[in-house]
Amino acid sequence: MLVVANWKMNGLRRESIDRAKTLAQMESTNRLKCDVLLCPPAQILSDIRYAIDNSNIFLGAQDCHFDFEGPYTGDISSSMLVDVGCTHVIIGHSERRINHSETNEIVARKAEAAHQVGLNTIICIGENMEEFKLGQTVEKLSNQLANSIPDSANLNNTMIAYEPCWAIGSGSTPTLTEIDDTHKAILEFTKNNIFKQGEKMDILYGGSVNEKNADSILDLDHVGGVLVGGASLITEKFWSICKSADRKFK
Ligand code: PGA
After folding, report:
1. CA of 232 to the centre of ligand 1 (A)
2. CB burial readout 134-170, b (16+ within 10 A) else e
């Protein structure tokens, strides 16, 4: 069970460090059973690493390049992320796929570069509103799964995050039944086509997760964690979501 904070391009250094320190303090006094991962903007990865030092919170990045070095202005390699203390990286978030024209093939190459240096990847997939309305969700996700996951992926280094594009930052989510059915379809597809023991995989849900809906989403049989954007910027809200995940162990 994993709870991921995706801070995206939000927050200056001081406030982000303070937020991370507060969370680290809360985690180290409560010792959560679920895993918690913070993915801050890249330029403060090192600061956040030190802020969470005395806790069990993991550090992750929001993206990496598919090459290890070279003439790629503005990009960051997977080995640089390891160098700064990351254990995880989000790959193929829909904001990267849409705003940076990242194809499934690019996503697969990035994930492979991450695996090569020992990073755990959270590979994001999700349909847009039109596809959702047309009932093409499973078809779209199957295509993304088939083409975004490199051969280097296994159950130990890869998690899938299902994030409907239309649910991200919108305040609306699929119904609980829709989320569970879609996660079931993802598990089925990964078991049959990618990982032999795919049913053992935790699939994360992301898209307008907040402190109010986290309990019911995390209660679903086929949901193994959440990826949180907006609500992860507010310590109390994010902590409440972490507690919801933690309760599943009791
Ligand atoms: P949101 O973002 O929680 O703000 O909807 C989730 C995400 O994009 O990872």
Report:
1. 9
2. eeebbebbbebbeebbbeebeeeebbbbbbbbbbbee
pLDDT tens readout for residues 221-240: 999 999 999 999 999 999 99
- What single letter denotes the amino acid at residue 214? A
pLDDT at residue 196, as a whole number: 79
Radius of gyration of the chain (CA): 17
For ligand 1, residues with CB inside 6 Å are 6, 163, 168-169, 206-209, 227-231
Say yes or no to pLDDT of 160 above 80: yes
Give the separation between CA 199 and CA 222, rounded to whole angstroms: 9
- Sorted by where each starts, the structural domains of the chain and their CATH numbers stand as 2-249 (3.20.20.70)
The partner residues of 90 in beta bridges, in order of sequence, read 122
Q: Which of 97, 227, 233 has the most ligand 1 atoms within 8 A of CB, as the residue to mutate?
A: 227
